[in-house]
Design the sequence.
């Protein structure tokens, strides 16, 4: 009897590649800073392409610079099975967020090649562009463009803090590619599976090496611009001031209070730009971000109304503009996909449990175009978006084994 595909998963090779990819954008504290569409990401992309080509995978890309590594199946007319995640990181990122999913998928492809049996469907490894949204906001623009939820013009116009547009950055990445053909967006898919670290501590607390993800919580993201007037900190009387930062602080305080009651909604103001940002000048303009999340769409929508009301009511003598840049309702992955993943784990006698994703992932977009599922593995203390992010090799291997047997089942089913 042919070995199970998972028997050919090589955890040491997976770990070695994880550590090798972590070198691109390595921080002195052990973390990773690999901004989307940056030179360091381009180097990591080239390394992925080289690994893929060495095992017979054919690279493809698209106008979003998403990277696909394709292992042909017996029937090229059948939609492929896709697996992967992203390789861009937060500025204070870790070695595993995103990259684990891409390299687990690559490991599965290599196991298929070693097995020597060609499945009916092609299997493709994917690294989505700009999942994190830290350099270019909002994130997930690669999977948004692939699935048609955003238009290329709008995405290309997004700029980073230095005024570089997504369009310029994509063009530079594509120009640096060596013989990687472009494909249109929207390739029909048989299924998509995304392995990822949990970025919370439910699996670790339960002692489960693998989580079968039931769904992803909903989110709305905003940018608020408050405009006032620059003035002298020593001579401008308070009654004459139009202080944009004080108005913003009032708004954020009121939003924080509103988010605590009645349900504790996750509200994060992670980014703030003050102009002119000079100690002795009354701030004339403030731009701040809002990241709002909750599993219940009704709670997110009620907070949306509260935020809009607070911005309007707390402008004072300033003016304020709120712009929603993302709205993704909470979702539940299909039962059939979750069952397939659970059956693969059970057949391997790998303990698994259902787990909900509080973090966002590209699987959110793929869910609306093909049967989609996610596999989580524990990360130490649930720490992520932090250089201390860590995952145990045996858990990463276990998740990859579950991915392998699930992908094989999906790729041999026609
Ligand atoms: O923010 C998120 O949920 C994802 O980790 N980028
Ligand atoms: Mn991620
Ligand atoms: Mn992340």
Sequence:
């Amino acid at each position: 009897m042919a070995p199970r595909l998972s028997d050919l998963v090589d955890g040491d090779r997976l770990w070695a590649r994880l550590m090798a990819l972590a070198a691109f954008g390595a921080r002195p504290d052990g973390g990773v800073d690999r901004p989307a569409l940056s030179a360091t990401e381009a180097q990591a992309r080239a390394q992925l392409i080289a690994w893929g080509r060495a095992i017979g995978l054919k690279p493809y890309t698209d106008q979003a610079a998403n990277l696909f590594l394709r292992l042909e199946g017996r029937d090229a007319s059948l939609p492929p099975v896709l697996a992967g995640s992203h390789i861009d990181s937060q500025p204070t990122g870790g070695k595993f967020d995103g990259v684990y999913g891409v390299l687990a998928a690559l490991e599965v492809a290599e196991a298929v090649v070693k097995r020597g049996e060609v499945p009916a469907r092609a299997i493709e490894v994917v690294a989505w562009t700009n999942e994190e949204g830290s350099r270019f906001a909002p994130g997930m623009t690669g999977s948004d463009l692939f699935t048609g939820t955003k238009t290329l013009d709008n995405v290309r116009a997004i700029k980073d803090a230095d005024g570089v547009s997504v369009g310029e950055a994509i063009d530079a990445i594509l120009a640096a590619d060596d013989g990687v053909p472009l494909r249109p967006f929207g390739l029909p898919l048989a299924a998509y599976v995304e392995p990822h670290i949990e970025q919370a501590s439910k699996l670790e607390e339960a002692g489960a090496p693998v989580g079968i993800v039931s769904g992803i919580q909903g989110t709305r993201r905003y940018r608020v611009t408050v405009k006032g007037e620059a003035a002298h900190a020593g001579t401008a009387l308070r009654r004459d001031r139009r202080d944009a930062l004080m108005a913003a602080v009032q708004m954020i305080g009121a939003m924080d209070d509103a988010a605590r009651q009645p349900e504790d909604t996750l509200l994060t103001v992670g980014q703030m730009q003050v102009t002119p940002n000079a100690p002795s000048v009354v701030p004339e303009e403030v731009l701040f971000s809002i990241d709002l999340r909750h599993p219940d769409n009704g709670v997110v929508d009620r907070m949306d109304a509260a935020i809009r009301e607070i911005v309007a009511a707390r402008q004072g003598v300033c003016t304020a503009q709120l712009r929603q840049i993302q709205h993704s309702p909470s979702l539940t992955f299909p039962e059939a996909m979750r069952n397939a993943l659970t059956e693969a784990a059970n057949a391997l006698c790998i303990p698994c449990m259902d787990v909900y994703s509080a973090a966002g992932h590209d699987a959110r977009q793929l869910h609306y175009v093909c049967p989609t599922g996610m596999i989580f593995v524990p990360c130490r203390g649930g720490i992520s978006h932090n250089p201390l992010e860590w995952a145990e090799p045996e858990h990463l291997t276990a998740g990859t084994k579950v991915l392998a047997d699930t992908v094989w089942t999906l790729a041999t089913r026609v």
In short: The longest helix spans residues 393-412.
